[in-house]
Amino acid sequence: MIKVLVVDDEPQIARALRINLAAHGYEVTTAADGAQALRAAAAVVPDLVVLDLGLPDMDGSEVIEGLRGWSKAPILVLSGRAASAEKIAALDAGADDYVTKPFDIGELLARVRAATRRSGPGSDSPVTAIGPVTVDLAAREVRRDGEEVRLTPTEWQLLEVLLRNPGKLVSQRELLHRVWGPNYDRETNYLRQYMAQLRRKLEADPARPVHLLTEPGMGYRFRP
Amino acid sequence: MIKVLVVDDEPQIARALRINLAAHGYEVTTAADGAQALRAAAAVVPDLVVLDLGLPDMDGSEVIEGLRGWSKAPILVLSGRAASAEKIAALDAGADDYVTKPFDIGELLARVRAATRRSGPGSDSPVTAIGPVTVDLAAREVRRDGEEVRLTPTEWQLLEVLLRNPGKLVSQRELLHRVWGPNYDRETNYLRQYMAQLRRKLEADPARPVHLLTEPGMGYRFRP
DNA sequence: TTCGGCCGTCAAGAACGCGTCAAAGGTGAT
DNA sequence: ATCACCTTTGACGCGTTCTTGACGGCCGAA
């Protein structure tokens, strides 16, 4: 979850920002003045800062410089002042964007998206472990004792449905629908065929599966 | 020297921007419409793009998406339209900043500084090694045993998408979308054609690729 | 015990996808 | 206008994958 620090001394604005950001999936922390802001930033290490200039205790540039001393998180400045000199000073102090009040909340969110997009995409892919086998769904990669294992497209789809419902029983009907399409209801022989292939490739002992289990008459289950 | 591409169909504005940017030490290229802009961008590989919306030949979002297909350079949008919807559309299409005309030249320069500041020092050596071949995505340069290898624009785009997802499988659909545009879904023959060309130019044994791999029925993968 | 349903396995032809070659459009440069 | 280069298309052989059918084993029900 992307963490945003909102710094504003006006409670209504801080509250409005918090609600809107939270509604769009951000984790929001708020601070009401510069000192709080710097302390909160050190504590939560935000991915982005929305900073209102005109705080009661510090000058805006001071806050920006305080943050920039150790953080590279984008800083989006809010301000009632529209004068170019103010904007230039804030941007050159280290801010990434400058929005004048009153502002459109949709535009602000778009600017937040633009700012997080740049620094956002860190490459970490979630891997699932199945005994001696690791499955990386994002990279579409399966390794068995370090060796690469190749799966066919149909095998991938079937495995993905099961892995996305860990521990849960998935009915044959649902598996058929999600892999072969809504017109396939009774072709359980397909499932038998491909489950056998998956077990051969993934299970230590394909005849005695430990993770890809059959629930007779119901469906299949992936046990982590 | 930081290279800036200025795209504007109004000669006065383009000229004013060129002069001001050049006076502050930037290397400036200009383009008067969308098609020229994309061609110029492919030729000079700018570090930043200043883009006027409302070009005569293309929609602004198209130009942004055309650039974003292969470039991560910051895009600073200029526009006469102050409506929030316009701003949101441009920012979500991939722009980094949005300034409404008339604008203060000092503020624009500050925003240019802010945009280049983050992408400047942060960009680590983007040289990728593929066996006997080195690829420099930023400089658009490929060397094979020291010899320079020429790639066509389409080959670059395709290679770049793959290299930016090292180890990850990229579906043929995504490749087609990012290289040819969202209307291309089923033209997998394009991929076959260009992957073959890339392998001829980059792989030691094009018939037995080691780094540019095919995942039958799914897509392609770059293995470092 | 016998029977029927369900599952795992095997084996085949059909269908599909990929690499490759060749050639026709397009576009900018000379 | 000609030329060179790049892109777009079409077609073919081949290997892999999918589909389909059949058989035997296991288990619960009659």
Specify which chain pair forms the largest interface: A-B, 31 and 30 residues
Give me the count of strands of chain A.
Answer: 12
The major β-sheet of chain A equals:
5 strands, parallel
Q: From the 3D structure, determine the CATH topology of the largest domain in chain A.
A: Rossmann fold
Strand order of the largest sheet of chain A: 2-1-3-4-5
CATH architecture of the largest domain in chain A: 3-Layer(aba) Sandwich
> Count of helices of chain A?
8
Assembly state (oligomeric): homodimer
CATH homologous superfamily caption of the largest domain in chain A: Response regulator
Secondary structure category of chain A: alpha/beta
The helical percent of chain A reads 40-55%
The residue-averaged pLDDT of chain A reads 91
Question: What is the total domain count of chain A?
Answer: 2
Element pattern of chain A in H and E? EHEHEHEHEHEEEEHEHHEE
CATH class of the largest domain in chain A: Alpha Beta
Rg of chain A, please?
Answer: 26 Å
Strand content of chain A: 15-25%
How would you describe the shape of chain A?
Answer: elongated
- Cα(first) to Cα(last) distance of chain A is 25 Å
Catalogue the unreliable spans of chain A.
Answer: none
Pfam family, one (chains A, B): Trans_reg_C
Keywords (chains A, B): Cytoplasm, DNA-binding, Phosphoprotein, Transcription, Transcription regulation, Two-component regulatory system
Subcellular location (chains A, B): Cytoplasm
InterPro entries (chains A, B): CheY-like_superfamily (IPR011006), OmpR/PhoB-type_DNA-bd (IPR001867), Sig_transdc_resp-reg_receiver (IPR001789), WalR-like (IPR039420), WH-like_DNA-bd_sf (IPR036388)
